[in-house]
Specification:
The complex is a heterodimer of chains A (180) and B (294). Chain A has one domain (4-178): Alpha-Beta Plaits, CATH 3.30.70.20. Helices cover 22% and strands 25% of the residues of chain A. Chain A contains six helices and nine strands, in the order βαββαββαββααβαβ. The longest helix of chain A has 10 residues, at 18-27. Chain A is globular, with a radius of gyration of 16 Å. Chain B has one domain (8-287): Formate dehydrogenase/DMSO reductase fold, CATH 1.20.1630.10. Chain B has eleven helices and no strands. Chain B is mostly helical and 294 residues long. Chain B starts with 7 loop residues before the first helix and ends in a 7-residue tail after the last helix. Classes of the chains: A alpha+beta (180), B mainly alpha (294). Chains A and B meet through strand 2, strand 3, helix 2, helix 3 and strand 6 of A and helix 3 and helix 4 of B.
């Protein structure tokens, strides 16, 4: 089984939010709902200053804090290393939202269950890639198998020494960032 | 990015579960250690414990989303024993019946109470352990969350336990005054308990704030929010002055003036402790900020 992950090249991101719109389309979300965000980080001071765009979504941790605290066992890791939610088990206690250090979970206002990015697993299992990856005009995201050293994503991570967000938290995320 | 996922319902639950289990401990301690001091305090504490924890648990249920609309989902709540909520459900399910049974036995309300009257002492001792579990678990619940660094410390359950003891004693004393206003004179015996619990609570709170200031940048920013930031007016007025300092002074006076303090001031001190306990929970929940991730 592959272990899917994404490498994010923040130096290419222009902050156009196409990934967000593609995700909302793919998952049929409301305009104010989203499974991914673009965070902005300002650095430097005049005249040498800039804004870094950091796309953020569920990090598909190999050691997910949300899974550990879920009282109903609704959260599980799929064989592909994707963290998924049993929709019929979740009670909406919001403990996973508190436990997630990346704060990428929220409650779906119609069903009342905790939802998040699930790597478009239906597309991926059919041989495709997540909507945020394929739609990006500057190809910020690279999707692939982290366990295969010859996949594009593994080679990108190795070449640029891409690192996950806050590796010190011990969550072992499946999303790696090449930062400016 | 976003506010805390938990709001006033969870704050109320943390407070009510703490106050209820604290009142139970106060009642059992009074009944076992000093039965001749005040019957009213043991009766009031035992009567308040069960209903307070039940109201708190109802707050928890109302905070659920899918589980509120489709209540059968709640059967899954004990599925994951690595989750503090699963443990909490088990502890609450055990503590609530024991607390109700103890109140029934002590006050001989129904025939069941008269039937288990002989086992009052055993019920009390078992209940105290479950009450400690209930009060401590409210702290563990938020202490194991690594998505909020401010809460993620072993001091948290200790702080909530100390607060549960002082608010529980306050509930029992107010209840005793309501049941039998003449007992208020003997309540001065318990003022020393207030002094001890409030001093411990104040010291643990100080420890918690000081440690948070140096633990991590996120915990420090939450602590700064409390001591000098946007929440500082509430923290200093409701928690420190109204919730700890004034009741501490009043309890001191009450203890040394034995029974001569105006009744209204005795009850006021207890009410202030309750306001302080509720504010403490609210401020800790609302000041929790997520880790700096980018």
């Amino acid at each position: 089984m592959p272990h899917y992950g994404i490498a994010v090249d923040t130096t290419r991101c222009v902050g156009c939010h196409s990934c967000r719109v593609a995700c909302q389309n793919q998952q049929a979300l409301q305009p104010d709902q989203s499974f991914n965000w673009i965070k902005e980080k300002d650095s430097g001071k005049f005249p040498a200053f800039g804004t870094e765009f950091v796309p953020l979504q569920c990090n598909q941790c190999a050691n997910p804090p949300c899974l550990r605290v879920c009282p109903t066992g609704a959260i599980y890791t799929s064989p592909e290393g994707v963290v998924l939610v049993h929709e019929h088990r979740c009670v909406g206690c919001k403990y996973c939202m508190e436990a997630c250090p990346y704060k990428v979970r929220h409650i779906d206002e119609h069903t009342g269950i905790s939802v998040k990015c699930w790597f478009c697993i239906d597309l991926v299992r059919a041989g495709g890639e997540p909507a945020c990856v394929t739609t990006c005009p500057t190809q910020v995201r690279i999707f692939g198998d982290l366990d295969d050293p010859n996949s594009n994503v593994s080679r990108f991570i190795a070449k640029h020494r891409a690192k996950p967000l806050r590796p010190d938290l011990g969550t072992r995320p499946g999303i790696f960032y090449k930062r400016s | 990015m976003q506010e805390s996922a938990w709001g006033w319902l969870i704050v109320s639950y943390l407070f009510l579960a703490g106050a209820g289990s604290g009142a139970f401990i106060a009642a059992v301690a009074c009944e076992l250690l000093a039965p001749d001091w005040s019957k009213a305090l043991a009766r009031a504490g035992s009567l308040a414990a069960g209903p307070l924890v039940i109201i708190g648990t109802m707050c928890l249920v109302f905070d659920l989303e899918a589980g509120l609309w489709q209540p059968w989902r709640q059967i899954y709540l004990v599925s994951n024993l690595s989750s503090a909520i699963s443990w909490g459900v088990l502890i609450l399910s055990a503590f609530i019946p024991v607390a109700l049974l103890y109140a029934d036995a002590l006050n001989e309300i129904t025939f069941i109470g008269r039937f288990v009257k002989r086992y009052t002492r055993i019920l009390g001792v078992v209940g105290v352990f479950l009450a400690i579990a209930t009060a401590g678990y409210t702290g563990v619940l938020i202490a194991v969350v690594n998505g909020v660094p401010f809460w993620n410390t072993p001091v948290m359950p200790v702080l909530f336990m100390a607060s549960a003891m002082s608010t529980g004693l306050a509930v029992a004393m107010i209840g005793a005054a309501v049941i039998d206003i003449n007992t208020i004179r003997t309540l001065s015996n318990f003022a020393l308990g207030h002094v001890i619990f409030l001093v411990v609570e104040g010291m643990v709170l100080m420890l918690f704030i000081f440690m948070s200031l140096t633990r991590s940048t996120e915990a420090a920013s939450s602590a700064m929010m409390l001591i000098s930031g946007v929440l500082s007016p509430y923290f200093w007025s409701f928690v420190v002055v109204l919730g700890i300092l004034i009741p501490l002074i009043l309890s001191f006076v009450e203890y040394y003036e034995y029974g001569r303090m105006p009744k209204s001031l005795v009850v006021a001190a207890d009410l202030l402790v309750l306001i302080g306990g509720m504010s403490l929970r609210a401020l800790i929940i609302f000041s929790g900020s997520p880790p700096q991730i980018i």
